[in-house]
Amino acid sequence: MTLAEVALTGDLARPARLTVPDLLGWPQHQVKVAFECATSGIQHHTFAGPRLYDVLAEAGPRFDPARRKDRLRFLIALAGTDGHHVLLSWAEIDPDFAHAPVLLAVSIDDTALDRAGPQLVLPQDRCGARHISGINAIRVDGAYRYRQPEAAATA
Ligand SMILES: Nc1nc2c(c(=O)[nH]1)N[C@H]1C(S)=C(S)[C@@H](COP(=O)(O)O)O[C@H]1N2
Ligand SMILES: [Mo]
């Protein structure tokens, strides 16, 4: 059987390629979620897997852990094999900030995702669109720079 892989890249001290069985190496959490799709209605699923935060923390994001404000500039881009993708902020999953219990699920309704790849699970989302399946790329980006808007052009 071919195992799907997730590439962890970007501003990380320890970039990695992880399979779904690799993701069993972190503490596992189970969650029942209901989410609504604009086109197919409400869905109910049980997911299990590690927290995204735990997996990314081990990959060593390149901020100074003692300076909380540094972390506010970090973004996380997650993409599925079909190109569907989403941006999260580091602060969204960081225990010192919003601490959202976001999972990288290794199973859906007791079916292993070894071949399909992990699924992003955001238990608090009402809409299903961020529950991205077949995640194969996660990029941590600390290089985003805020640019002051140009001064309004004078007539
Ligand atoms: N990879 C991938 N994951 C995805 C999507 C997608 O297009 N690609 N659609 C999202 C949307 S809009 C919803 S509502 C949920 C549920 O989709 P399902 O009906 O395919 O289970 O999956 C999400 N995950
Ligand atoms: Mo959807």
UniProtKB/TrEMBL annotation:
Pfam families: Oxidored_molyb. Residues 6-115 form the Oxidoreductase molybdopterin-binding domain. This is Oxidoreductase molybdopterin-binding domain-containing protein. It comes from Streptomyces brasiliensis.
